[in-house]
Amino acid sequence: YHQRHCAIGEIMSVSSPLDSPADVRSTLPTQILIALAGLLLVFLEGSLATWSIFYASVPLPTIAFIYYMRVNYPHLLSLPVILLMGLFGEMMFFDMLGSRATGLMIVALLSQLNMASQQHVEFTELWANFCLIVLVYIIFRLAVFFVFYFTFPDWRAVFFQAGITMFLFPFFFVVMSSISASLSQLFGSNSR
User: Closest Cα to residue 42, out of 83, 87, 89, 77?
Assistant: First the structure.
């Protein structure tokens, strides 16, 4: 009887989750907003594909977004979100299932590898690292295309896509830095 009474008393003394205050320092709402922003960038890529100049070789702002976020705020853009962005892009562009998602995961992991050394470097070093990551992504996608079709796509379109993505990186970087600075002033600063 005494053991049962103590066990019931212990159960009754356990507080419910409603008794404790909410953790307002959670990064989950920010992570959800960043995931939605990533999915919107996939839509942006899709809309750029309708322009005649970009029809076969759309710039890749998702790579710039992933690179910027993984270098500056790695805890806010998780690998499952990047995988979801890749799968969503594959469904939207009718790509081979897994090729874009795997490529974006490679971009995230390569960005993460150099993260500690890239936080306090000049912009030209960031740009050079980004260009190397874009080349790795393009080579990976070419290899996957070759394995499935035993041929290569139009080289001009591939090099135009890589070149325009590398060329537009400073624009993407300034826009994302401005948005990040504005949001940190508005909501308080996030530590890296």
Answer: 89
Residues in the chain: 192
Taking CA atoms, 130 is separated from 23, 78, 136, in Å, by 36, 19, 10
Main-chain dihedrals φ then ψ at residue 144, nearest 5 degrees: -65, -40
Provide the whole-model pTM.
Answer: 0.81
- Range in 25-34, 64-73, 100-109 the model is least confident about: 25-34
Give strand ranges (E) for 26-142: none
Largest separation between any pair of C-alpha atoms in the chain: 83
pLDDT digits 0-9 by tens, 89-144:
999 888 888 899 999 999 999 998 876 555 678 889 999 999 999 999 999 999 99
Give the closest residue to 169 by CA, choosing from 111, 109, 105, 88. 111
Pick the more confident residue, 162 or 52. Answer: 162
H or E stretch covering 141: helix 123-149
Question: Token match 């419910």: residue?
Answer: 16
Cα dihedral angle (83, 89, 91, 94), rounded to 10 degrees? -130
Give residue for tokens 């939207």.
92
Q: Are 17 and 11 in contact (CB under 8 A)?
A: no
Closest CA to 63 of 52, 71, 55, 75: 71
Query: 123 Cβ partners below 8 Å, 6+ apart?
Result: 170, 173
